[in-house]
Amino acid sequence: MCKMLAFDIETTGLDPEHSLVTVVCTEDFETGERRAYEFARVRACEPQNEDVLRTELIQAFDEANSLCAFNGVRFDIPFLHKALGLSDATTSAWLFKITDILESARLGMFGPAHTFGLNLLCQHNQIKVKSGCGLQAIKFAQEQKWDELKSYCADDVRILCDLYRRRFLNNPRFHNVIDLSLIAHVNTYVKQSNKNASKKQKDTENDTELCAEVVDLRHKLLFYQEHIFASCDAEAAFAKLLAENARQKTEIDDLQKKLAVYNEYCVCFEDVL
């Protein structure tokens, strides 16, 4: 099972009520394995397989430990939810485990709340950007240029993985550094400890992991409060999310207690040294 599955989608427009998904591209952050779910091609050439493709996409997203997108919280996943007829439970589970640089900037995870485009972020970090814009992808679909459409979408996913592999990024809006470990899945940047590492080093690693878990959970709770609750029409679904919110708050409190213990222990250990 992959640790993080980066993805991007292309569509025939911005309104999922009247537009369609043309392609979804993914890349396993750890293994580099790539996959393209070519909905437009299948829809035109073998429509009997469209439901199979939809099922395969849902399974891949469900099995991932975490998802990774740029503006996926406010566009990609809501669009997939409507256009593919996904259940509230499926969409909520994806949103709960997504890592989104843009949404994190909007929520103030990297300083005061702000936004920036993907190309601008790449330019400030010497990462090659792709040529063209979203209108080009729409044109590819209209002209049935399936390979060009797939390549266009896959390029965004490649860029996203390049950014996450850097981990430390220059913020295009402020003179500071974005540390993606603050928002990524807690195991994304965790490396195997050296067998000869000192006890202090191990405690520091545990401390770092706990900090990351707390930040990750807080980010998810903020998102639930701002977006998911507002979008749940069914009373039962709303009640379920409220219960999950309460459970996560309890988990955060527990992690903070553990973190306090680790901090106190590390101080004592330094005194002994």
Give the beta-strand count. Answer: 7
Envelope shape: globular
- Structural class determined from secondary elements: alpha/beta
The CATH topology of the largest domain is what?
Answer: Nucleotidyltransferase, domain 5
Overall number of structural domains: 2
CATH class of the largest domain: Alpha Beta
The end-to-end span amounts to: 41 Å
- Main sheet: which strands, in order across? 3-2-1-4-5
User: What's the mean pLDDT score?
Assistant: 83
CATH superfamily of the largest domain: Ribonuclease H-like superfamily/Ribonuclease H
Radius of gyration: 20 Å
> If classified by CATH, what would the architecture of the largest domain be?
2-Layer Sandwich
SSE string: EEEHHEHHEHHHHEEHH
Task: Compose a concise summary of this entry.
The chain is an alpha/beta fold.
What is the topological layout?
Layout lengths: L3 E8 L9 E8 L5 E4 L1 H7 L4 H14 L2 E4 L2 H12 L4 H9 L1 E3 H6 L11 H6 L10 H9 L3 H21 L1 E3 L6 E3 L19 H33 L3 H38 L1
Parallel strand pairs: 1-4, 4-5
Antiparallel strand pairs: 1-2, 2-3, 6-7
What would your notes on this structure say?
- With 273 residues, the chain is α/β, with parallel strands linked by helices.
- It has helices at residues 39-45, 50-63, 72-83, 88-96, 101-106, 118-123, 134-142, 146-166, 199-231, 235-272, and strands spanning 4-11, 21-28, 34-37, 66-69, 98-100, 168-170, 177-179.
- The chain folds into two domains: 1-189, Nucleotidyltransferase, domain 5 (2-Layer Sandwich), CATH 3.30.420; 191-273.
- The chain has ten helices and seven strands.
- Strand 2 (21-28) and strand 3 (34-37) form a beta hairpin.
- The longest helix is centred in the C-terminal third of the chain and has 38 residues, at 235-272.
